[in-house]
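Thread: "does anyone have the structure for this chain?"

Original post by V.I.:
We have the sequence but no experimental structure in hand. Need at least a predicted one for the grant figures.
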Amino acid sequence: MKFESLPIAGVWLIAPEPHVDERGLLRRHFCVAEFAAHGLVATVAQGNVSENLRRHTLRGFHYQEPPHAEAKTVSCLRGAMHAVIADIRRDSATFLQHVAVELDEVNRLSIHVPAGCAMAFLSLADHTMLHYYVSTPFAPDSYRGIRYNDPALGVKWPAEPAVISPKDLAYPDFPSKRG
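Reply from O.Q.:
Generated one for you, tokens below.
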């Protein structure tokens, strides 16, 4: 696995190094030792699958607050997605900055999102399927969201969402003041 740090501390793009032969390919998708060597949270408390039937389905921004803040590693197993990670750690040098990456079934990339960052994504193909390794179990009382078009984040999406849940539409803007 190859790890590339992105401009927000703790956010990593992970590329597989597949072994290919006449049968197909094998790729390592997760490795405690390799994650730990790069300072990534290597605890897996839960694995989630997100299946998105329609192109331009938008989910997020989602995160969990302490004491249940979660790190996650997200991969696109089928289709394609435009993932955006926003730094909402008030003590971070990149507070309210975001980074966007495209993950798809061809590039086989994964993105590691540290605790304290929120993630949203827009599916770019019908039947897009994502897999998440999550460091902390779901805690409904700590679960939060930020509206996908919050002006404080300034995200430019590659397309307008065609499908978005009423819950995601109703999320408030993030309180953008430090402290």
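V.I.: this helps a lot. The chain has a mean pLDDT of 95.
O.Q.: and Helices lie at 32-37, 166-170.
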